[in-house]
Specification:
single chain; about 240 residues; alpha/beta; four-stranded parallel β-sheet; three-stranded parallel β-sheet; 8 helices; globular
Length: about 240
């Protein structure tokens, strides 16, 4: 199951896993877009439309899965976003709520919906998409950085909680990935979004999807706990060398 699968890292993860022979459940808020992207995969792909911020809808969608789709072996908690890039004292409280509800509460909702089945079966893998931003705050990133720091803490905590089982837990921490991430952050300002990737060759969604597949296909006794993935000329969340 991949959340936030209509674009960016989520779409890339879904497509990379499908091509690797997995049957994939894709979820997102935009049903039309889900069908546009994934109908071509036929019976290997199951579409679920709900918002991870709506806990009841998420639980209902998972509970209603037919038997042949109900055993989820890999959960990729990808749904997330950044909104705004202002000093904390000038931030938009609505943006704060959306980031916290999606990046933190949404991840918790999906974990609560899926992981009990993994624990019961003593098998499964949770892959959370964090960020280099969770390691250290950068200028004007405040709340987004805080949500990704929370993802790291929640991932580490879950790994501890399931250590008595064979369930594996992985945190992927991408740096600059060229998707619609910055366009969303800047509320549709394409020019401002383009400046984020100017002068550097950024990562792609497929780069992160390849890392997710690598972690999922590691031998059963190997747990890729955490992976930091940066563009070659990016040293940290705030150190980027541009041409």
């Amino acid at each position: 199951m991949v959340t936030g699968a209509t674009s960016g890292i989520g779409r890339a993860c879904a497509e990379v896993f499908l091509k690797a022979g997995y049957r994939v459940i894709v979820t997102a808020r935009r049903e039309e877009k889900l069908h546009e992207v994934f109908d071509a995969y036929g019976d290997d792909c199951k579409i679920l439309c709900f918002d991870v911020c709506n806990r009841d809808a998420a639980f209902e969608a998972v509970a209603a899965l037919p038997a042949e789709w109900s055993r989820i072996d890999v959960l990729i908690n990808n749904a997330g976003l950044a909104l705004g890039l202002e000093p904390e004292y000038e931030g938009n409280p609505i943006d704060w709520d959306t980031m916290i509800d999606t990046n933190v509460k949404g991840l918790l909702t999906m974990t609560r919906a899926i992981v009990p089945g993994m624990v019961e079966r003593n098998s499964g893998h949770v892959i959370n998409i964090g960020s280099v931003a969770g390691d250290a705050a950068y200028a004007n990133g405040n709340v987004y950085c805080a949500t990704k720091a929370a993802v790291k803490a929640l991932t580490d905590g879950l790994r501890i909680d399931v250590a008595k089982t064979a369930v594996r837990v992985t945190l992927l921490k991408p740096g600059l990935v060229e998707t619609n991430f910055s366009n969303i952050r800047f509320h549709g300002d394409d020019d401002r979004a383009a400046q984020v990737y100017k002068g550097i060759t950024p990562l792609t969604g497929e780069d992160i999807a390849d890392a997710a597949l690598y972690a999922a296909q590691a031998p059963a006794h190997v747990q890729i706990a955490e992976m930091l993935i940066l563009a070659t000329h990016q040293a940290s969340g705030s150190v980027i060398v541009r041409e």
